[in-house]
Design brief:
The protein is of the alpha/beta class. The protein has 2 domains: 3-207, Rossmann fold (3-Layer(aba) Sandwich), CATH 3.40.50.2000; 217-312, Glycogen Phosphorylase B (Rossmann fold, 3-Layer(aba) Sandwich), CATH 3.40.50.2000. It has 13 helices and 12 strands. The chain is globular and about 70 Å long. The model has no long low-confidence stretch (mean pLDDT 87).
């Protein structure tokens, strides 16, 4: 049985949609008789277990509450200062360096025949490259988002020359050293094929998994059946400030206007991680009861509600 070391920063219990792809990736690798060990992050102490290695990340990037906020802020300030002075750094660099320091132990513990890395963040690619080269292990790189093609960090890449140069070097090195590139969508796969002539580029979509629907409940009373319930789950934006959904909400304002009867017929439910820039422009609709912001919910509950809503809102952004 072939052994695989799968590297993914985002993985449960971290609350991030990005963790679902490696979770399901590993599930189906195991179903196809691969022996998989996951290397991921933790905000607790480092642990080595039979199927998972969690390496402590001092940044607390996804759990920056209480004292952890000040630790994160301090490291964030160091990161930004280094970048502004022309030295590449990242909030995840501390985690990456910790993994690299433990690389001998990790490889001795897992004895992998193959390494698979899941981006983002870019540090997973760097770790994969380091381990692949040092221990002469084949590497497969998985892109949940584009690195330079339609990047999720577009603003930072355009703002800092050092980041663009660093990402360009990493992308070239990843393509050269990976036996295969896997991506979440055909445009990303086509990008690697067309730019780098990387024929070993394949698409594995993130989407419907029949096992997700096995225990989904229906019609449990969450939605008011007397209203037309529109549901959105996820995020409006990430790093790109232009990725907004105000056109949709402007259309709602135009349709409803000051007509209370129309307003009473529609409610838009938001479930996910939304920042102040997302929510403040919607204050008027929230006050009118047209929008309810539920915040974060567990994935299984979200799947149930997606089945129950009258309309599921899916946002697609143009990249020009």
């Amino acid at each position: 049985m072939k052994k695989i070391l799968f590297i993914a920063y985002y993985y449960p219990p971290i609350k991030s949609g990005g963790g679902q792809r490696p979770l399901n990736f590993i599930k189906y690798l195991k179903k196809n008789n691969y022996d998989v060990t996951l290397l991921t992050s933790t905000y607790k102490k480092t642990v080595f277990e039979s199927e998972i290695i969690r390496v402590f990340d001092i940044s607390f990037n996804k759990e920056r509450r209480g004292f952890r906020y000040y630790v994160w802020l301090f490291l964030r300030l160091i990161t930004e200062c280094l970048i502004k002075f022309g030295f590449y750094s990242s909030i995840y660099s501390w985690w990456k360096n910790s993994v690299i320091r433990k690389s001998e132990k990790i490889i001795a513990f897992t004895k992998p025949d193959l390494i698979i890395v899941s981006y983002p963040p870019v540090e997973t690619l760097e770790i994969g490259l380091f381990l692949s080269k040092k221990f002469n292990i084949p590497l497969i790189s998985d892109f949940r988002d584009g690195l330079l093609f339609e990047p999720i960090e577009k603003t930072r890449i355009n703002k800092y020359k050092i980041i663009k140069e660093k990402y360009s070097d990493i992308e070239k090195e990843i393509v050269h050293n990976s036996i295969s590139i896997v991506s979440v969508s055909d445009p990303v796969s086509d990008y690697f094929i067309n730019k780098y002539r990387k024929k070993e580029s394949y698409t594995i979509y993130t989407g419907f998994d029949p096992e997700d629907s096995l225990n989904v409940k229906f019609n449990d009373g969450f939605f008011d059946i007397n209203k037309f319930n529109i549901l959105f789950t996820g995020r409006f934006s990430l790093a790109d400030k232009n990725n907004r959904v105000q056109y949709f909400f402007d259309a709602i304002r135009s349709v409803v206007g000051e007509d209370k009867k129309k307003a009473d017929k529609i409610v838009i439910h938001l479930i996910g991680e939304f920042n102040k820039d997302d929510i403040i422009p919607l204050t008027d609709l929230i006050e009118k009861g047209l929008i309810v912001n539920w915040g974060y919910m567990e994935r299984n509950r979200v799947l149930e509600l997606q089945k129950q809503a009258n309309l599921y809102l899916l946002l697609l952004f143009r990249t020009e």
